[in-house]
Write a structure and sequence with these properties.
This protein is of the alpha/beta class. The protein has 13 helices and 20 strands. The protein folds into two domains: about 300 residues, 3-Layer(aba) Sandwich (Aminopeptidase); about 130 residues, Aminopeptidase i, Domain 2. Belongs to the peptidase M18 family.
């Protein structure tokens, strides 16, 4: 006769289930993750880390292969913003692939094409926010500048200021509370306008000049150090991001606090997982894609053709008669994890969550059947069979997991790349971790969840 414990669904907590060895494994893994995310302040920097680690673990660029066989480790990059890593399985491509797709881009402030101006003998850089942010959170915090300037002679100049020892930082000023009566009476969404997100970058005027002497001083500094002029900003990708490294949070150091954990925590977990996989049954693919925070558009986003083109290139190296129909069959027989984060239940703001279906920090990796908003708009809504498959995989590998939603119905919502992957033929389910303060300059994740997520991706790749 079945007992009551078997009838009920019981949430687990990773810390409560962990023995001494697993506790230490969690903590050690988090230290390596903190180093990765501290040095991934832009998509290009994140991609550089992925590529360096892949090459050091035996992955080779696809164009170095004349043919592919089981066990071959392949890497393909695209425009320094998207990466595909693959380990060819015993079954080849024709039996489908196991794909874990995460995104390298995060909410931030981008410099406008003509950003530099002077007002009241202060120099500023104008920005345009990227992705969903609370604008007021970016005021009066230390900020860094990361990115590249592309010159018309073909040179690419890298600019990274604010994160190295001894570097200056930048800031966006806020209004003092003594004079903020009108500001504080506004809704939070209206208290700070997008055009007020201007970065303070200088205040010492050049010795000679008739006007805008502070601006000229900054231009002279930039030219002397980097060889760039004001016009070169037009062909630049410069991102304003929070300065500083990842932190341990809590007396017990149970959490990681860092910028960009949505979604670079899943980037790191899937990277570690595919680096450690042997020769799997199905071909394993880790996809690191761009532009998710702005709708997955563009040729480096999930709506582009980077994945299909790379799989086609691999197919040509595996099968003599590979064609478009072959590619479509591969996609239709494949299964994928949309590796993205979700909202964790925050006791300070629990009114926005429906507790029965909310993910908890420390509750393990989160499997999310659907995302979207207003009637599951723009969601994948994983099939019941796919959910059952994931339950079985996680239970078989003794991985602690939970389900989660992105808030109450009609409260808000959000999406991932899951529905775009599904439109190509894949069976897809969202699988990541829960965060507190998502999209804030400092996001919070449980070290235990990070580790269980990595274990989930590794088990998935081993199919």
């Amino acid at each position: 006769m079945i007992n009551q414990d078997q009838l009920r669904y019981r949430r687990k907590n990773v810390w409560e289930e962990a023995d001494t060895k697993k506790y230490q494994d969690i903590m050690n893994f988090a230290e390596e993750y903190k180093d990765f995310i501290s040095n991934s302040k832009s998509e290009r920097a994140c991609v550089r880390q992925i590529v360096a680690r892949a090459l050091s673990h035996g992955f080779k660029p696809l164009d170095q292969y004349q043919a592919l066989k089981p066990g071959d480790r392949v890497i393909q990059t695209y425009r320094e913003k998207a990466v595909l890593m693959s380990v060819v399985g015993h079954q080849g491509l024709d039996r489908g692939i196991t794909l874990v797709g995460s995104h390298t881009d995060v909410p931030r402030l981008d410099l406008k094409p003509q950003p530099l101006y002077e007002e009241e003998k202060l120099a500023f850089l104008k920005t345009h926010y990227y992705g969903g942010i609370k604008k007021y959170q970016w005021l009066a915090v230390p900020l860094a500048l990361h990115g590249v300037v592309c010159l018309i002679d073909g040179r690419v100049v890298e600019i990274n200021v604010g994160d190295m020892p001894g570097d200056p930082v930048f800031a966006i000023s806020d209004l003092l509370p003594h004079l903020a009566k009108e500001q504080m009476e506004k809704k939070l969404s209206e208290a700070v306008e997008g055009e007020q997100l201007n970065l303070l970058v200088g205040g010492i005027p050049i010795k000679q000049g008739e006007k805008e002497r502070v601006k000229l001083a900054i231009l002279e500094l930039l030219y002397n150090k980097y060889g760039v002029t004001e016009e070169d900003f037009i062909s630049a990708e410069l991102e304003v991001v929070p300065a500083g490294t990842a932190y341990d949070i809590g007396f017990d150091r149970s959490f990681v606090g860092a910028y960009g954990q949505d979604d670079r925590v899943c980037v790191y977990n899937s990277l570690r997982a595919i680096l450690e996989v042997g020769t799997p049954g199905r071909t394993a693919v880790a996809l690191f894609i761009d532009k998710e925070e702005t709708g997955s558009t563009g040729n480096t986003g999930m709506s582009g053709r980077f994945l299909q083109n790379t799989l086609a290139d691999m197919g040509m190296l595996l099968y003599p008669n590979f064609n478009e129909l072959s590619l479509r069959k591969i996609l239709a027989t494949s299964i994928a994890l949309s590796a993205d984060v979700t909202a964790g239940l925050d006791p300070n703001f629990e009114g926005v969550m429906e507790k029965n279906n909310a993910a908890r920090l420390g509750g393990g990796v989160v499997v999310t059947k659907y995302t979207g908003a207003r009637g599951k708009n723009n969601t994948n809504d994983a099939h019941a069979e796919t959910m059952a498959f994931m339950r079985g995989l996680l239970e078989q590998n003794q991985i602690i997991w939970q389900t989660g939603e992105l808030g109450k119905i009609d409260q808000g919502g959000g999406g991932t790349i899951a529905h775009i992957i599904a439109e190509q033929g894949f069976e897809v389910v969202d699988c990541g971790i829960a965060l507190l303060s998502m999209h804030a300059p400092l996001e919070i994740a449980s070290k235990a969840d990070i580790y269980e997520c990595y274990r989930a991706y590794k088990a998935f790749f081993a199919l």
